[in-house]
From TrEMBL, chains A, B:
The keyword Protein transport does not apply. The lineage of its organism: Bacteria, Bacillati, Actinomycetota, Actinomycetes, Kitasatosporales. Residues 37-56 bind DNA. The keyword Cell membrane does not apply. This is TetR/AcrR family transcriptional regulator. Residues 14-74 form the HTH tetR-type domain. InterPro entries: Homeodomain-like_sf (IPR009057), HTH-type_TetR-like_transc_reg (IPR050109), HTH_TetR (IPR001647), Tet_transcr_reg_TetR-rel_C_sf (IPR036271), TetR_C (IPR011075). PANTHER family: HTH-TYPE TRANSCRIPTIONAL REGULATOR RUTR, TETR-FAMILY TRANSCRIPTIONAL REGULATOR. It comes from Streptomyces caniferus. Keywords: DNA-binding, Transcription, Transcription regulation. Pfam families: TetR_C_11, TetR_N.
Length: 198, 198
């Protein structure tokens, strides 16, 4: 349209971008990944299909950007107060709150499921969301290892998965509640095996 | 048809049942759960649609029966040689072989994915396949606890998930290979936290 001529076109672009993200997250939760379409997103967001295609090549690309935009920035890493157990419990309790929030649940579940089913999407999902999420735990565990709080021969990648995978599988498969009590027990039980032997 | 009159009708039923199971496992791997239909299964199995509807109410029911029929029977539980680490490694290495087999991969992944997406199917999937699989680990860990090999204050359910969830999430999300080396490190790292303190 008159995009180029408008003085506030970048603000309007940002507004469209936000509307497209909101629409795609809402829709994927309602209809699932398979039935999500660019047309549907455009219609819900009140923009033209071409606006979406100008910025993203596929629905997967839109959704991944929408999701990454919405989740906490991993760049800061985990807190490091010098007390590994306290730091892990603090972050994992906050993550439990997030996972228990229906607004987060539906799109993340749809994305996890679609990713498990579609190898290309899976690689992007893993690279953009899952691996950065695991990495901050690996980094925090490595810092604890350097501080002597975790034994030198521990595989910190596997240790991170020992905390994160039970948590996320319990949520994904709905085999149990993500309570603070569960989080604390999980962290304590993982950490007691990682400490240096006296 | 003439089922009732035929002297070999039960053998023929068994043959149809087997063909229906094989067809549904092959098809779900090829087309995914969403596109799997009773018609498609019937056509691939060389039976009439009505034969399937006579025995099962839905494609989910067929698939779950097909899958349960194909996996090892959990009734026997895990081996108990008195060496918990050796027993867990033995079983988990065999499971890695199974998960690395393409014939097993496709239908199990389709089922896991469909289960994560569909709450009704999920409950059945969890009750019929996932929970029995976790339970045999819980039982084995409890036996080790009674034998004094695992500390009395360990939550054996969470301990079982500390072994099984990293293993299955690594497979489902394709974040790493399921090698014997991985399995052994995982088991050792979980178990060293579960032992009674001296």
């Amino acid at each position: 349209m008159a995009d180029k001529a408008a003085p506030d076109s970048s603000r309007r672009s940002e507004r469209s971008r936000r509307a497209i993200f909101d629409a795609s997250l809402a829709l994927v939760g309602e209809v699932g990944y398979d039935k999500l379409t660019i047309e549907g997103i455009a219609s819900r967001a009140g923009v033209g299909k071409q606006t979406i295609y100008r910025w993203w090549p596929s629905k997967a690309a839109v959704l991944l950007d929408a999701f990454t935009d919405g989740v906490d920035d991993y760049a800061a890493g985990l807190p490091d107060t010098g007390d590994l157990a306290a730091d892990l419990k603090f972050v994992l309790r906050a993550t439990a709150d997030e996972f228990n929030d229906p607004a987060f649940q539906a799109p993340y579940r749809a994305l996890a499921v679609a990713g498990a089913n579609d190898e290309g999407l899976s690689r992007t999902f893993v690279a953009r969301l899952l691996e950065p999420g695991i990495s901050v735990y690996v980094d925090r565990l490595r810092a604890a290892q350097e501080a002597g709080e975790v034994a030198a021969d521990v595989d910190v990648r596997i240790a991170a998965e020992m905390v994160l995978s039970p948590f996320s599988q319990r949520w994904l498969m709905r085999t149990g509640e993500l309570t603070y009590d569960y989080v604390d027990t999980l962290v304590d039980q993982v950490l007691r095996g990682l400490r240096p032997r006296d």
